[in-house]
Write a structure and sequence with these properties.
By secondary structure, the protein is mostly beta strands. Helices cover about 10% and strands about 40% of the residues. It is built from two helices and eight strands; from the N terminus they run βββββαβββα. The protein has helices at about 60, 115-120, and strands spanning about 15-20, 25, 30-35, 35-40, 45-50, 75-80, 85-95, 100-105. An eight-stranded antiparallel β-sheet has the order 1-4-5-8-7-6-2-3, with no helix packed on it. The longest helix is centred in the last third of the chain and has 10 residues, at about 115-120. It starts with 13 loop residues before the first strand and ends in an 8-residue tail after the last helix.
Length: about 130
């Protein structure tokens, strides 16, 4: 994730084998945003999720070319394979054309730095899991 004052990256990113997220839910109103997503990059300050348009639940999001309305929202996600629940704030979104969207989640406020660094190390790199 980027430091908003200097534009510099806070923590180096690690590309991961896609880790399945079983749901992405708003903590503000408990609305389910997406029925599934994949973690594709991780750092000790955040996770980058890939979400297909079909996985988006609110029709207003599916029909839109931007997910900027989610910026700053507190969200909750469940990584089923790791039996892990993570909350954070939507830091940025990006349209990836027909492939869907990228959603960057900053989870640095809700988890200790040591735990976040351990999680980043534990997530598998591409090719580590067959």
């Amino acid at each position: 994730m980027a430091n908003t004052r200097t534009g510099k990256r806070v923590a180096p990113r690690k590309q991961t084998t896609p880790i399945h997220v079983s749901s992405l839910t708003s903590l503000d109103d408990f609305t389910k945003i997406a029925r599934q997503a994949d973690v594709v990059e991780a750092s000790s300050s955040g996770l980058l999720l890939h979400v297909t348009r079909e996985a988006l639940i609110p029709s207003a999001l599916r029909k839109n070319l931007t997910l900027d309305c989610l910026l700053g929202d507190r969200v909750f996600m469940r990584l089923e394979d790791m039996n892990l629940e993570i909350s954070g704030i939507v830091a940025r979104t990006q349209l990836m054309g027909k492939a869907g969207f990228l959603i960057a989640i900053d989870y640095s406020e809700d988890a200790p730095e040591y735990w976040r660094e351990c999680l980043t190390e534990l997530l598998p790199k591409p090719g580590e899991i067959d």
